[in-house]
Design brief:
heterodimer; A: alpha/beta; Rossmann fold; seven-stranded parallel sheet; 23 helices; 17 strands; disordered N terminus; B: alpha/beta; archaeoglobus fulgidus dsm 4304 fold; 23% strand; globular
Chain lengths: 606, 197
């Protein structure tokens, strides 16, 4: 190893050549290191003269110039973390062991292989989404990070009598996080079940403790039945009886769900409204009852202290899009002013309203088959009808300035009644047709519902239909007798026909075992007719439902039918945010126009 | 942890990359009923060009595992007894994290829920086709997961209780589903930040 020196030659490092070496200039060695050459050399000397060899060492510097250093930050930044810890939700009811698996719905075959493989089958995931009006991120996180509804229900071992449909799970997921919601599914899609399941989950999660459910009186027993089926562990308090009993029931804190009817609520305002009275959730069934925000029922209900407000209705716009204003006055007072353009209204209510139709969600649902029975009046009917109409129009014309919509309305009703039955002879082309159709219905072992606007018409039908075992369900039937009548209609094979009035039988009843519906006369509003039809055409329907709409040709009925048909599609218009007529029922001008058209000699196309 | 030990908390850890934002991580602690106990997520970690050059191929694993994973676990008030991730890069946790980890290979599409909510956030890292050593595999209800037993001396024991824990969890819940929740929460966080900006 050579040492390399810097500076002058160090004498102590002088090398001497060995004796005998030729006197010559010599080169000891040449080294190269990188691109620099190092050479150790001497100028030569005879060994014998023993002179020191004149050697010299050239030292070359190998040191690099100090490089300029550029420092790069290679260290990763630390990650800043946002944290949220969930409070454990206490369960107010003990978790019970799952005992009976959910049954399939009627008609659903259970494949044994599928049952065995259920645990490995892909599960549907219905996620609870936070509503848009929930602003705080931690509040939104609460819902975002909840497990899918199916897991939630499974974890809490909540049994169902039937496996819910997917749209029903989505409805529950819609209601669960919302403080204000309108579930406006078409009739028959299971609004009741969805509301009950959402209530059940909220109660189990400890989010709510006391619920007030308000429904029309005839539907109280229906809600009881549905709660017994879908949430049997939840104690119910049915507010009924005399004043003392009701007062006692209102004060019961142990029952998490109280059910009261609208009429009763008005009588018991003092028990429900007050600063010391607070509900975690108020549910209005058939919430179209409060569509008129100025009526006393709506005012009373709005005074109830509550955290959450849900409205259930199959007809969120029964007459006019402004009906929705009344419902929103209950949900979010002042949020939806009346008279908004329909597009604006659709946008504003979008996150609060969930509406599905059977056509959309139940692809496998049996179809509704409409039959428009355009019937000629019997000669007796026609004679009476023509006379009544001519005289009626003349009388209206003579009234001049005194003419009001009520006068016209009276004439319309009169003419419609003649279309049902001739008041003199009792002749009825509609009844003839109904009787003939009922022969077929009864012969095939099926059952039918017949709707009419008037109880008197029901009375007139009954003798002719006696052999089909008619049962009646209308305003004259006491409430306590109504459920047994429905039970008999369902179970007694000799009872083939149920005669109902629109008022009593249009909402909340489950008559899905019926395959035939007859609209003996037509209601003013297609939404009410749809409600009536959907008593039979709902989940669990055994097959297609045939709806026969009876209309007397060349009469006031036909003209009303024409107008109503043009409006039928409006029902969905609000949610598709397109322009449409603002009123579903006949307007004043339209009712007046019924006769103006006739009086002017114009005929509507058939 | 013995085979008879009952797992009470599972941690679902994942990372995702938002365009222009950087890498974000989320950790969701669930009980065995799949109910949320804790949620932690990071602000975006932006990687500079220099860091990208210096760390080279190991960059994502370093950021997701060593930086984000470490930070999230440090914040957890409850130590999860088992960590699951569907992001291969996140699986590269620091050596001093002794929580057993399971890699749940993501399926495509990520999930039905993700499709519904338009959460198009695939896991950041691509996993190798087969688990490298010392990863082992377990098949739970038709789903194969890769597991890393932290202590080779008790690897067999760990394998048994991990299998028991996952079998119990998957009896009612989907193993991949909680990752969707984490990603949706992170997406919400990003959207909230965008709105605020």
């Amino acid at each position: 190893m050579l040492n390399f020196f810097r500076g002058e030659t160090d004498p102590s490092r002088t090398d001497r050549p060995s004796p005998g070496d030729a006197e010559q200039a010599w080169e000891i060695e040449t080294w190269s290191w990188h691109d620099r050459e190092l050479r150790l050399s001497g100028d030569g000397a005879a060994a014998e003269d023993e002179r020191s060899a004149a050697t010299s060492i050239d030292a070359k510097s190998l040191r690099f110039d100090a490089p300029a250093v550029i420092s790069l930050a290679g260290r990763m930044p630390t990650a800043r973390v946002f944290s949220h810890v969930f409070p454990e939700s206490p369960n107010w009811l003990p978790v019970v062991a799952r005992s009976v698996p959910a049954k399939p719905r009627d008609g659903e075959a259970r494949d044994p292989a599928k049952v065995a493989d259920e645990s490995t089958a892909p599960r549907s995931r219905t996620r609870i989404k936070p509503p848009k009006d929930l602003i705080k991120w931690t509040d939104r996180l609460y819902y975002l990070l909840q497990p899918p509804l199916e897991s939630l229900l499974s974890s809490q071992t909540l049994d169902f009598p039937f496996q819910p449909f997917q749209h029903q799970m989505e409805g529950v997921a819609f209601l669960f996080p919302r403080a204000a919601a309108v579930l406006a599914d078409e009739m028959g899609l299971g609004k009741t079940m969805q509301a009950i399941t959402a209530v059940r989950l909220l109660l189990h999660a400890g989010h709510i403790k006391n619920v007030l459910l308000i429904c029309p009186k005839p539907l109280v027993t229906n809600w009881q039945r549905e709660f017994a089926a879908w949430a049997p562990e939840i104690p119910l308090g049915i507010v009924e009886g005399d004043t003392h009993k009701r007062s006692f029931l209102w004060q019961q804190q142990a029952t998490p769900v109280k059910i009261a009817n609208y009429e009763l609520l008005m009588r018991d305002q003092g028990e429900v409204v007050g600063e010391d009275k607070q509900y975690d959730l108020v549910i209005l069934d058939e919430a179209q009852r409060i569509k008129n925000s100025s009526n006393s029922t709506a005012k009373t209900i709005r005074q109830i202290n509550r955290q959450r407000s849900w409205a259930l209705t199959g007809t969120p716009i029964e007459n006019s899009v402004n009906d929705l204003h009344g419902i929103f006055e209950f949900l979010l007072p002042g949020y939806l002013p009346p008279g908004l353009p329909i597009e604006v209204m659709a946008r504003e209510v979008g996150d609060y309203v969930l509406r599905r139709t059977k056509d959309l969600v139940l692809k496998d649902m049996p179809p509704r088959l409409y039959r428009d029975a355009l019937l000629e009046l019997t000669p007796q009917q026609w004679e009476t009808y023509s006379e009544a109409e001519e005289k009626g129009i003349l009388r209206l014309s003579d009234m001049g300035e005194e003419l009001t919509i009520q006068h016209v309305f009276q004439l319309v009703l009169r003419l419609k009644q003649i279309c049902n039955f001739d008041p003199v002879t009792g002749a009825s082309s509609k009844l003839q047709r109904l009787e003939a159709d009922m022969e077929e219905v009864a012969a095939s072992g099926q059952k039918a519902i017949v709707f009419s606007q008037w109880v008197k018409t029901v009375d007139q039908m009954r003798p002719t239909l006696e052999r089909f075992g008619p049962l009646e369900y209308h305003g004259r039937i006491p409430s306590k007798q109504r459920d047994p009548i429905l039970k008999q209609f369902k179970e007694d094979p000799s009872k083939h026909v149920l005669l109902m009035s629109y008022g009593a039988g249009s909402v909340g009843l489950n008559l899905q075992f019926c395959r035939y519906v007859f609209l003996f006369d037509r209601w003013w509003n297609p939404a009410i007719e749809d409600q009536a039809i959907n008593r039979a055409h709902r989940i669990g329907a055994a097959g297609s439902v045939t709806i026969t709409r009876m209309t007397s040709e060349r009469t006031i009925e036909e003209r009303i039918h024409m107008i109503l048909e043009e409006k039928r599609q409006l029902f969905e218009t609000l949610f598709s945010a397109t322009n449409g007529p603002q009123n579903l029922s006949l307007t004043k001008d339209e009712i007046m126009g019924l006769f103006q058209l006739r009086a002017g000699g114009k005929r509507l196309a058939a | 942890m013995s085979a008879g030990h009952r797992v009470e908390q599972l941690g679902f850890l994942t990372c995702t990359e938002f365009d222009g934002w950087g890498l974000c991580g989320g950790l969701l602690l669930l009980n065995t009923l799949a109910r949320p106990l804790e949620f932690h997520c990071t602000l975006p970690v932006k990687v500079s060009r220099t860091q990208a050059i210096l760390y080279g191929a190991s960059l994502r694993a370093h950021v997701c595992g060593q930086v984000i994973g470490r930070a999230l676990l440090d914040k957890a008030k409850t130590v999860p007894q088992l960590l699951l991730t569907d992001c291969w890069d996140t699986a590269q946790l620091p050596d001093n994290v002794d929580t057993p980890m399971v890699f749940v290979p993501p399926t495509a599409p990520a999930s039905a829920a993700a499709e519904v909510d338009s959460v198009d956030l695939p896991p950041v890292g691509m996993a190798p086709a087969a688990p490298p050593m010392p990863w082992d595999t377990l098949t739970i209800r038709d789903q194969t997961v890769w597991l890393l037993a932290p202590d080779t001396n008790s690897a067999a024991d760990s394998r048994r209780w991990i299998e028991a824990a996952l079998t119990q969890f998957t009896a009612r819940h989907d193993l991949a589903e909680p990752f969707d929740r984490v990603r949706q929460a992170m997406t919400e966080a990003r959207d909230a930040a965008l709105r605020a900006a």
